[in-house]
Amino acid sequence: MIYLQLFLNFFKVGLFTFGGGYSAMPLIKEYIAEQNGWLTLQELSDIIVISEMTPGPIAVNVAAFTGMRLLGFGGAVICTLGCIMPSVVICLVLALIYKKFKGMKALDGFMWGLRPCVIALIAAAAASIFLPALALSGFLPKSDVRLDVFPLILFSLSIFVIIKWKVKPVYIMLAAGAAGAGFYWLMPLLIHNA
Amino acid sequence: MSMKSKDKKLYFKLFISTFMISALTFGGGYVIVPLMRRRFVDELKWLSEDDMLDLVAIGTSAPGPIAVNTAVLLGHRLFGTPGALLAALGTVLPPVLINTAVVLVYNQIKGNPVVDAVFKGFQIGLAAIITDVLLKYLKNILKEKSVVQMLIIPAAFAAVYFFKINIIAVLLFSGIVGIIYNIIYLRKTKE
User: Fold this and answer.
1) ipTM higher than threshold 0.85
2) DSSP state, residue A33
3) Chain A contact set for B73 (CB, 8 A)
4) CB contact under 8 A, B126 and A173
């Protein structure tokens, strides 16, 4: 039963993901994390992070990850199949009616309306997933060092570096990871032992 | 050599090509598609440049991961339905295999203070990367100078983020607005 439910929900993710990249994220957040609780938002953010550093589309990575975590390899296969089934079927049909598809004005209009919507949906999902991390407030235990400016500084610095020097995402991730280790692990350790 | 074994060889080449491209490419469709073009148009010469452009155009507008869509279309163009299935398999197999390994490692290291600290940093870096991508998308939309598209962005955001309206409903509604607007607009330009 859970196999069927996983399959159907990943099918929905595949069917309504328009435009690649992060556009699967809002659907995964809604149908895999929030509605069914198969992933926590923390785990979802972790798997998107991992997906950034491993090959493959985000939706497929999340499907395989979720399936594997819940039900082992069989689960990974079922979730991945659900996720790519709409692609396979729709693209096979499109390949057959390709000539007609090319001139379909209604479809152009549909995509035209979808593009700004997808941006908004990604922004909304990103806001729910990442704002808690950015707004992390409070003090380091047993010290008066405030924690809540660090995420904002690292975030702003990363944005600046990406836009200014067009640094590849992988390097941004590595640098941010190192900064995280320094700030959230090493520094509290040093302060505690001081 | 019999026809059958020649076919088998070509199928195998298609599968291995898609598998290798998928296994060695970090990131989704926008990164994979150019590599597919290099392999199938430039190196193997199985497709013309125009064919490839057509496939990418359909693959980008069809729902689902762009890399999978393009692989299915490419496989179908080359060897029909079996080709489509093989190319799809080649494209998803690497991430599936890698993620089964990832989960095993993840289960082991989750909760480790160093790992958690690194992931907190990763998360902030990723937020910056996504923000940059969104800004680029936004710039492209603003370039089209359409008030309707500009209004859809805050409206869809509010609908989902504040009013918790169903994502699929919001997507379909925006698409329908796009269809209606384009029909009216086309009629106006005809007159």
Assistant:
1) yes
2) I
3) 91, 94-95
4) yes
- B179 interfaces chain A, CB cutoff of 8 Å: yes
pTM, whole model, 2 decimals?
Answer: 0.90
Asked if A65 and B99 touch (Cβ cutoff 8 Å), the reply is yes
Long-range contacts of B46-52 (CB under 8 A, 24+ apart): B46/B78, B47/B74, B47/B77, B47/B78, B51/B77
Mean pLDDT of B26-44: 83
Q: A29 CA to chain B: closest CA distance, Å? A: 10
DSSP A144: -
Residue B35 with chain A: CB contacts under 8 Å: none
CB proximity list for A122: less than 8 A, separation 6 or greater: A22, A23, A25, A26, B130, B133, B134, B137
Instruction: Identify the closest residue of chain A to B85 by CA–CA distance.
Output: A88
Which tens digit of pLDDT belongs to each residue from B45-104? Answer: 999 998 898 888 888 888 999 999 999 999 999 999 999 999 999 999 999 999 999 999
Interchain pair B99, A101: CB under 8 A: no
The 10s digit of each residue's pLDDT in A117-160 is: 999 999 999 998 888 777 654 445 555 555 568 888 999 999 99
**A93 in contact with B at a CB cutoff of 8 Å?**
no
**b/e A26-58 (16+ beta carbons within 10 angstroms → b):** bbbbbbbbbeeebbebbbbbbbbbbbbebbbbb
